[in-house]
Q: What sequence folds into this?
């Protein structure tokens, strides 16, 4: 025994509990080793030197710590599947009509699919026993899921128990659950079984945030909001963008017809979307929580001088990072504090949304799925607490090539990118959009031809042989699609743009985007000197290839510098008061 440590009493009852937990843990490990079928679809098709699970964002362990505890884990395709996909990449593209852009949520989230829920627990069991129970339950969940729906028919989904545990903790501690979706693919990112569990099983309110509405035409945003409200009456739906016009430095089209956006360096509050969120929370909590400090925070931000970018808030924001919260018993509005849990799939903009609500950077942001490893608690005010959950890919039947475009899978670790290129190129005129010529001077195009043409234009060559780097070009195109430079917007059932062009809801969408009218009735930016680029004119000029969420240095050479006029960035918000 080490020097200076006193011997503590250890009862026989405690020893029995310890042995019992150890036995249960060993039994689970034995059963888990015999359940390889859970993570593969056919052992005869697997190569002997490959694993059935693909671990993404793998990091080396340092200091005895498991750095990959929360790493994304997905089912891994077989070599035969990859070979077949690469062969199809040389087949001719076949254009599809606009009906292929229509999404019905019931086609992708069938009743047989569900997500893992935390098994029942109590304070009487030890942490090791609880962990063993959760592991056993998760193993059985995967087995049942495979029996209901074959792995071949399922999309990529998270199979790391540690990541699901983060969702369980956030759902337990939240008073209101905020689910965030990308407006380009909202029905593919909203699991109905999660809505049923939160609203009926847990009895909590859920708010749906249609994020990144700056990447979508205004009539389409209004149509999607109406779709969700009619399908889920108990769901509160609001629109949000972290990049309203006053947070942009420039927005112009380059020579290729792609839209390049340059955002301002300082993080500013997206006051319009934040005001909608505050109103939604007020209607839910009524007078049970004092939200006046949050309302005052928005008003102060609205009247803040645009040139004052060095303001520092002290004592209002607290960030707490936890790796585990095994025992938590929820109490509604405990201590007069409203807890809002922010959940959603990867790359829908959860962390950016929290930063935009705070008005400054408090959560790390990255375009790489799985960047947020564990939930983080941030106090917006003394009475409002935000909780950011890691992005989780829920089980569904969404095509894998579409999941790549949605950002659910890291592009840098994609083994076969050409099926996703085909999906875009059959719905958008990629050669015209990219202003490229066929590498072999032929009339028909294939996904490989599109990538070769882009590699030729950008000068992507392999290091050894100097050939066109097709794989790098494919990754570049997929990143442009993820950022919004190449923007593919899906439509709700029955969508007709003409019917939604003058709908009253469209004015609210433009208000959230901070788009206002001048004396002639033209929609303009409140902060730019010149007339606004067509990418923000939500009239008939709007096309599908709109603004980018990110910034690509490769395309900035085609965009002239433009210095914005210093003005009140919240003019649109003040007009409503």
A:
């Amino acid at each position: 025994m080490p020097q200076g440590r006193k011997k503590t009493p250890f009862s026989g009852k405690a020893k029995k509990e310890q042995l019992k937990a150890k036995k249960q843990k060993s039994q689970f490990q034995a059963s888990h080793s015999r359940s390889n079928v859970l993570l593969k679809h056919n052992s005869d098709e697997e190569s002997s030197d490959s694993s059935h699970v693909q671990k993404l964002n793998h990091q080396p362990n340092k200091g005895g710590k498991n750095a990959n505890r929360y790493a994304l884990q997905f089912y891994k395709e077989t070599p035969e599947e990859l070979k077949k996909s690469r062969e199809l990449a040389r087949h001719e593209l076949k254009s599809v009509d606009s009906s292929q852009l229509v999404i019905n949520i019931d086609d992708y989230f069938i009743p047989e699919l569900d997500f893992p829920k935390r098994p029942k627990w109590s304070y009487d069991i030890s942490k090791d026993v609880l962990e063993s129970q959760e592991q056993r339950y998760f193993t059985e969940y995967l087995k049942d899921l495979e029996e209901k729906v074959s792995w071949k028919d399922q999309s990529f989904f998270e199979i790391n128990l540690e990541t699901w545990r983060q969702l369980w903790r956030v759902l337990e501690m939240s008073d209101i659950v905020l689910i965030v979706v990308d407006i380009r693919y909202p029905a593919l990112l909203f699991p109905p079984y999660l809505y049923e569990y939160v609203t009926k099983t847990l009895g909590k309110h859920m708010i749906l945030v249609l994020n990144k509405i700056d990447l979508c035409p205004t009539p389409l945003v209004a149509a999607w909001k109406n779709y969700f409200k009619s399908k889920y009456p108990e769901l509160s739906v609001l629109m949000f963008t972290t990049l309203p016009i006053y947070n942009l430095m420039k927005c112009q089209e380059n020579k290729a017809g792609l839209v390049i956006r340059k955002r301002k360096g300082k993080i500013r509050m997206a006051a319009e979307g934040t005001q909608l969120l505050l109103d939604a929370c007020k209607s839910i909590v009524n007078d049970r929580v004092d939200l006046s400090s949050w309302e005052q925070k928005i008003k102060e931000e609205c009247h803040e001088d645009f040139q004052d970018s060095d303001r520092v808030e002290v004592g209002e924001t607290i960030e707490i990072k936890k790796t585990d919260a095994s025992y938590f018993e929820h109490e509604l509005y405990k201590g007069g504090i409203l807890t809002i849990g922010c959940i959603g799939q990867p790359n829908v903009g959860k962390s950016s949304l929290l930063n935009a609500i705070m008005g400054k950077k408090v959560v790390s942001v990255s375009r790489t799925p799985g960047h947020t490893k564990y939930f983080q608690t941030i106090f917006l005010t003394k009475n409002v607490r935000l909780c950011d959950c890691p992005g989780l890919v829920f089980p569904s039947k969404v095509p894998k090539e579409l999941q790549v475009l949605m950002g659910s899978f890291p592009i840098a670790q994609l083994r076969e990118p050409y099926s996703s290129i085909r999906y875009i190129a059959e719905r958008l005129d990629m050669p015209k959009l990219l202003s490229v010529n066929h590498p072999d001077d032929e009339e028909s195009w294939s996904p490989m031809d599109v990538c070769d043409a882009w590699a030729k234009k950008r000068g992507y060559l392999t290091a050894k042989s100097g050939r066109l780097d097709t794989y790098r070009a494919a990754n570049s195109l997929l990143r442009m699609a993820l950022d919004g430079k190449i923007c593919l917007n899906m439509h709700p059932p029955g969508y007709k743009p003409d019917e939604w062009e003058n709908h009253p809801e469209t004015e609210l969408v433009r208000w959230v985007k901070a788009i206002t009218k001048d004396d002639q009735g033209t929609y303009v930016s409140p902060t730019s000197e010149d007339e606004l680029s067509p990418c923000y004119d939500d009239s008939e000029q709007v096309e599908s290839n709109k603004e980018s969420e990110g910034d690509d240095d490769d395309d900035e050479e085609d965009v002239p510098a433009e210095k914005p006029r210093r003005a009140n960035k919240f003019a649109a918000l003040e007009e409503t008061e």
About this structure: Confidence is low (pLDDT under 50) at residues 30-50, 305-325, 368-373, 525-577. Residues 275 and 523 are 22 Å apart (CA to CA).
